Structures are given as structure tokens and as C-alpha cells.
Amino acid sequence: MMAVAIVTGASKGIGKATSSLLKEHGYTVVSISRTMPEVGDMRISLDVTDKGSVVKVVEELVNKFGGVDVLVNNAGFGVYGKFTDTSLDEEEYMIKTNLVAPIVFTKLVLPHMLKKGSGSIVNVVSEAAYVSTTTLAVYSASKAGLASFTNSLWATVSKMGIKVSGIYPGPVKTNFTSHPSFAGMKTNIFDKYAVEAEDVARAVLKGIRTGKREIYVPSRLKVDPYFLKLSSIMQEITYRLIRRYF
Ligand SMILES: NC(=O)c1ccc[n+]([C@@H]2O[C@H](COP(=O)([O-])OP(=O)(O)OC[C@H]3O[C@@H](n4cnc5c(N)ncnc54)[C@H](OP(=O)(O)O)[C@@H]3O)[C@@H](O)[C@H]2O)c1
């Protein structure tokens, strides 16, 4: 029987590329997003912050397939702007989407994976988990929370046969910046340095297969956390530069 993979945020960008890649690699792909996804063996329209519906959908999937082999928590968005100017309602919704929903999905699929003694959980985090700019304060906080959750989960269940991986992309060419708040973005680093959604999808597949705790896209970004954690001097300089220019 083919392995069953849930991909959230699958209507666009990284999620859509991931659903396509997993299908190519023989997974039975369950694609989820608010607008109906175009790719997937099962396509479900669902808001990942709607906990009651998420519980129902995951129960139905477990009953239909006898479990879930792969969970890719990818659905997410950013609210851009200085914390002094952004909307609290939007930020609360963002925390529910980027952080609470992955925890809920994980809580629901993990017991079935543990029963089988196998499975993969891949969380699409962000470089922003480690590098906080002045214009993505709550987004960074949501991703730092997701990074922390991912690391803790990795430490808890990777010795029980479950592969857990966090993906840390820098800028990616997707619809991410189409959120209205990005209209005020001054320096568009996305155009200059962004990688393709397919590059991140390949990293997700690597995470599913290896359970590597952190995967950076592009891989040179892996210096970021060390850079920030190990050198307090460099950290101070980095944040001073951020305060000045971003
Ligand atoms: N693009 C970047 O530069 C970048 C960098 C680092 C990390 N990331 C992360 O990568 C992930 C995917 O983003 P992307 O860049 O591919 O952006 P995207 O093109 O805007 O795609 C976001 C996906 O998430 C779905 N989504 C958003 N809110 C949802 C909700 N409440 N319920 C269900 N689905 C929801 C969207 O579908 P619907 O609107 O149809 O619901 C869409 O399919 C996010 O977690 C993002 O934080 C992106």
C-alpha cells in the first residue's frame, strides 16, 4: 500500500510544489488549504485554524487509510510591518495558522504513527525563526515557536521510529508577499535572493526520508543560527544593522 502524506497549504507555492513532488514519488497525497488545491489524490478545502474541522478530517483520513505516514505542516503566512503598525487580529490568526495548527495536526497523527512505529513529520519553518527583523516580529515569533516545537518533537520521538524535520527557507518565490501588508515593503530581497518553491519541496522530501532536524534552503543559511548563537558580538552587530536598515 502506498504511503499517505498530508500536505497543508497545498493550493499555492511550497505546498503545491510539495504535493506534486510527493505524487511523483508515489505517495498518496492529501492536499489541504482554504481554496481547493489543484494537486493531490484527495483535495480538501479546510482552514487549518478550524480545530473542530481539522479533528474531523484527520479522523476520517485515519479511518480511510488506516493511518497517516507523512505530515507536512506547511500552511502559513506573514504579516509585514513594524509591530507598532500591524493588526493584532491578523497576528493572532497568523499564530494560530503558523504555530497552533501544526501542533494540532501533530497531536492528531502522532499516536497512529507511534502505533505503527514509523512516520515522518516535516514542519516548514523559516530562517525568520532565527533572524528576527523589525518588520516581521510576530511572524518571527510564530516561526521561532515552531522551530522550538520541532526540535523538542525531534528529541522526543525520533528514537521511537518517527522522523521529524524542520525546513528553514530564506526568501522563496511564492505568493507569500501577496498579503496586503507587504505592499509597504521597501527593500525587496525576495526578487534578489529568492529560491524556487520546488527547491523547498525537494528539502521537504529529504526531511521526510532522513528526519534531519534542520534543513536550510539554500544550505548556506545553516550558518545563521550558529552565527547568531555562538557570537554575541556578531549578534549585537546584526541586530544593530537590522534596526538601522530593515
Ligand atoms: N515564501 C517565502 O519566502 C517563505 C520563506 C520561509 C518560510 N516560508 C513558509 O512557507 C510556508 C508556505 O508559504 P509559501 O511561501 O508557499 O506561501 P503561499 O504561496 O502564500 O502559500 C501559502 C499556502 O498556505 C495556505 N494557507 C494559508 N493560511 C491557511 C489556513 N488558515 N488554512 C489552510 N491553508 C492556509 C494557502 O492556501 P489558501 O490561501 O488557499 O488557504 C497557500 O496554499 C509558510 O509556512 C511560510 O511561512 C515561506
The share of residues in extended strands comes to 15-25%
Please bin the fraction of helical residues: 40-55%
Pick out the low-confidence regions. Answer: none
Distance separating the two termini: 50 Å
CATH superfamily: NAD(P)-binding Rossmann-like Domain
Count helical runs. 8
Strand arrangement across the biggest beta sheet: 3-2-1-4-5-6-9
Would you kindly provide a written description of the structure presented here, covering whatever features stand out?
Strand 1 (4-8), helix 1 and strand 2 form a beta-alpha-beta unit. This protein is an alpha/beta fold. It is 48% helix and 17% strand. Helix 2 (51-65) packs parallel to helix 3 (88-116) and helix 7 (223-230) packs across helix 8 (232-245). The protein is globular, with a radius of gyration of 18 Å. The N and C termini lie far apart (50 Å). The chain has one domain (4-245): 3-Layer(aba) Sandwich (Rossmann fold), CATH 3.40.50. The strands form two sheets. It has a seven-stranded parallel beta sheet with strand order 3-2-1-4-5-6-9, with helices on both faces. NADP nicotinamide-adenine-dinucleotide phosphate is lined by residues 8-15, 33-35, 47-49, 74-77, 97-98, 124, 126, 169, 171-172, 174-176, 197. Belongs to the short-chain dehydrogenases/reductases (SDR) family. One of its GO terms (cellular component) is membrane.
Task: Provide the fold topology.
Elements: E1 4-8, H1 13-24, E2 28-33, E3 42-45, H2 51-65, E4 70-73, H3 88-116, E5 119-124, H4 137-157, E6 162-169, E7 172-173, H5 189-193, E8 195-196, H6 197-210, E9 214-217, H7 223-230, H8 232-245
Parallel strand pairs: 1-2, 1-4, 2-3, 4-5, 5-6, 6-9, 7-8
Helix pairs in contact: 1-6, 2-3, 3-4, 7-8
Bound molecules: NADP nicotinamide-adenine-dinucleotide phosphate (NAP).
Keywords: Oxidoreductase
Protein name: SDR family NAD(P)-dependent oxidoreductase
GO molecular function: oxidoreductase activity
